From TrEMBL:
The lineage of its organism: Bacteria, Pseudomonadati, Pseudomonadota, Alphaproteobacteria, Rhodospirillales. InterPro entries: DNA_brk_join_enz, Integrase-like_cat_sf, Integrase_catalytic, Integrase_DNA-bd_sf, Integrase_DNA_bind_dom, Integrase_recombinase_N, Phage_Integrase. CDD domains: INT_Rci_Hp1_C. The keyword DNA-binding applies. It comes from Dongia sedimenti. The keyword Ion transport does not apply. This is Site-specific integrase. Residues 223-398 form the Tyr recombinase domain.
Amino acid sequence: MARLTKREVDSLRPLPDRDVFAWDGEIRGFGIRVKPTGSKTYFVQYRNADGRTRRLVIGKHGILATDQARDLGRQKLAEVCKGDDPSAQRRAARASLTIADICDWYLKEGRAGRLLGRNRRPIKATTLDGDEGRINVHIKPLIGSRSIRGFILADVEKFQAEIAAGRSLARAKRRGRGGQTRGGPGVAGRAVSTLRGMLGHAKRHGLLEANPALGVRIVASKRNLRWLSRGELAVLGATMAAAERQGEHPTGLAAIRTLLLTGFRRLEVLGMHHSWIRDKENSICLPETKTGQQVRIVGQAAIDLLTQHPRREDSPFVFPADWGEGHFIGVVRVLDRVCARAGLAGITPHVLRHTFASMAAELGFSELTIAGLLGHASRGVTQRYIHLDRALILAANRVAAEIAQLVVPSTSAIQRNAAE
């Protein structure tokens, strides 16, 4: 056969019952295999010093160009001529890898932008921060020293059970986001999800033959059903007003009110820039969220709160830090102090988001409308364009006005009636 070219490789078609092989006519031992699934993989085949036939995978077609694969194949075959056995060396390297090695590789490659997430874009830094916390607190302390060879699905589920029982608590200190040390079903499920995803990346990049966490059953966690009733919102609003008069941090209080009026996630509020606010369109353009770039509709009461908040000219953030160039980060501490003073227990920024959704449901809005207000991932064409719906603006105005009436002292009756 002649020299393999991209055109010839692209023209190869799979067979349903067996692999298809094509060989390069220029480099003896270099070829490509087409599996019944259609996957095409370059490889070299040779005999080692003991006369045994070995086959070494070079890489997948599409990730490697044909000429690149040929150059790599030539290098490997040159090693064989020197007496080396690259296939055996690769197997030995894989066998010696530990879970901790895979963790370090994942974080290094992820930080360099060489790993793609579910949206086919480089994994976000915030996701890697959360994964690093779970790696340092749960994965490395419990199974980091384990060799990847012999690590099976049962080991993954045992690892999950240990975290659910809180056994990583005494063995590591929290470092970074995502490293809650108290354990429990929710923490265990997130740790196993991180492990499964990390091993999946390692398999795709040729470090592993198979992902031992594939098919694991994630333990069910108890859903947080906490939200603030109208009465609790009124108590919280009055308490915030009193606390503000007595010197509580005004940026923290404004951020709490914004969380309530928009239903945004904590970092979506704290990281908000003035330039993202489109007051005439009742929207905020978020360049990066949990589900990608979004234009999120917000009510007029929220727009008024954001545009009237004192602006620091040297910072792009709506809620800037007290010093430095970053955004405010103390909203949880302010919320804890206010709620303790108000006698409200179990209140987190996510509870404020849940409160917004509950108010929307109480006002009779549909699940699709509420999903659009919250910025949930799109599940169809209709939801993909829901931000263009005029009815969504009316819904955002109504929900924000109802909550603002209870928690924002400056909200007027005229503003509330306009939203209705």
